[in-house]
Design a protein that fits this description.
- With 299 residues, the protein is mainly alpha-helical.
- The chain is built from ten helices and no strands.
- It has two domains: 62 residues; 224 residues, no CATH class.
- The protein is rod-shaped and about 100 Å long.
- The termini are far apart.
Length: 299
């Protein structure tokens, strides 16, 4: 009996322990605190990895030099305000150079052609009055020489000294030549100034731009050529514009110096032509006066 009760107690003990163990195993398999520690940690670690990767990519992008278009217009827009002012001033000087070139070229061509035509017209004239009649209202400098000679002859009427009349007429001619020389050289001083100063103005803009580039290098703590090159290129653009303004100004100035010299030679020929006509008129006057005196004496 006792054995039977003992067997029943052992069986009941195993039966009662079996469900508990099975329940514990099921609980351990289904409890997230026991069975899913790794999945709980993985979602927390993934965002941190992505953030670190994003930060590394941002640092690499920040350290990578920004490629810039190095066209003249873009370099002008990104240049310093002082360098921009230098470039604008040099561009204006270049515009003045070409304006003076066009204006003086037209002026010298017209006055030389008209003066040569006037000299051809009076080539066969025998007196100042005849020469003025041949010229008409031409408005050349030769007309001014003839008018000055006739005025001096009129003011010196009754004076027997021809030498004094010719000297006074020559003085008037010299004043006309000096005034014409100043007038025809108008604008050439501007060309000379632009040709002489434009390279140095451009060099000033270059020095200022390179100085700013070195300041930028010290701030960025890098000597990468892609970072340094744009600022230096912007600075060198000022020198290039200065040369563009200076070289044509020097060439045009030398060209006009030769043209004005040729024109002033024509002016000198005109002065000599007017002086010769005045001398003929004076001699003719003396001959006629001597003829009248002789006729009166014969009577």
């Amino acid at each position: 009996m006792f054995r039977t009760i003992l067997k029943v107690a052992v069986v009941l003990t195993f039966v009662s322990m079996g469900p508990v163990t099975f329940a514990q195993q099921n609980t351990a398999g289904s409890d997230p605190k026991v069975s899913a520690p790794a999945p709980a940690v993985q979602p927390a670690a993934a965002p941190a990895t992505l953030v670190a990767a994003d930060n590394a990519a941002a640092d690499a992008k920040a350290s990578k030099p920004i490629l810039r278009e190095l066209s003249p217009w873009s370099m002008f827009l990104s240049a310093d305000i002082i360098v921009k002012a230098v470039m604008i001033g040099l561009a204006f000087a270049s515009l003045v150079t070409w304006t003076v070139f066009i204006a003086k070229m037209v002026e010298l061509t017209v006055v030389q052609r008209r003066l040569r035509g006037a000299l051809r017209k009076i080539a066969d004239s025998r007196s100042l009055a005849e020469a003025q009649f041949a010229l008409g209202s031409s408005g050349t400098i030769l007309s001014r020489f003839l008018a000055a000679a006739m005025r001096e002859a009129r003011l010196s009427a009754g004076i027997s000294s021809d030498t004094g009349v010719k000297e006074r007429a020559a003085s008037s001619f010299a004043e006309i030549v000096r005034a014409e020389s100043r007038r025809i050289r108008l604008g050439m001083g501007v060309l000379a100034t632009i040709g002489a100063t434009s390279p140095f103005v451009g060099l000033f803009g270059t020095v200022w731009g390179i100085m700013n580039s070195f300041i930028g290098i010290s701030k960025s703590q890098t000597t990468n050529l892609a970072v340094v090159a744009p600022g230096i290129a912007e600075a060198l653009l000022a020198t290039a514009i200065g040369l563009v303004a200076a070289i044509p100004a020097v060439i045009i100035y030398n060209h006009f110096a030769r043209l004005t010299k040729a024109y002033l030679e024509l002016v000198s020929r005109s002065s000599g032509a007017a002086g010769r006509l005045l001398s003929r008129d004076l001699d003719r006057t003396h001959v006629s006066s001597h003829g009248r005196v002789s006729s009166h004496a014969a009577e």
